[in-house]
Amino acid sequence: MLMTSLQTRPYILDPEAEIARLPSGLQVSVKATTIQTGGSFNLLEVAAAPGTSTPVHIHYAEDVAVFVVEGSLRVFFGDREIDAEAGSYAFFPRGTPHGFRVRTGAPARALYLTVPGGFDRFIQERGLWTEASEGVAVAARYGIEILGPLPE
Questions:
Q1: What's the domain range around 35?
Q2: Residue stretches of the chain with pLDDT short of 50
Q3: Contact 40, 116 (CB under 8 A)
Q4: pLDDT in tens, 32-67
Q5: Domain total for the chain?
Q6: Which three-class secondary structure state does DSSP give residue 22?
Q7: Host H or E run for residue 146
Q8: Which residues of 105-128 are buried (b: 16+ CB within 10 A; e: fewer)?
Q9: C-alpha–C-alpha distance, residues 48 and 151, integer Å
Q10: Is there a domain that residue 37 lies in?
């Protein structure tokens, strides 16, 4: 059986790759773009300071997998919330409302995988806007619905 690479060509990314600083305070480095993976997936590294959070949101175009590399996140999904320590893994099928908050006094870092690719384009465009209302419109163009802030 003939097998081919999912990537359009092999590459190694410099660890000092460009970081998008988003209005929410998240710092995101795209490790695998849609083009590099032939549209199969995106891989991002997300870093966040204590107290930083995402809004509750839904991805309609991709499934999301999150691996906590360091720190601790309070992860919200559906009507549940769970603390995810370093080494924890979470999976959110498309259509699942979810979000997270860095819950301790230390920063957190996670790998964020989306399948199929395309989410990187949202991150790259999102880094260009500053107003929250503008972000909701950008998210909608990429099949992401922003539902509002996380519960306290």
A1: 20-144
A2: 1-4
A3: yes
A4: 989 888 899 999 999 999 999 999 999 999 999 999
A5: 1
A6: coil
A7: strand 144-148
A8: eeebbbebbbeebbbbbbbeebee
A9: 18
A10: yes
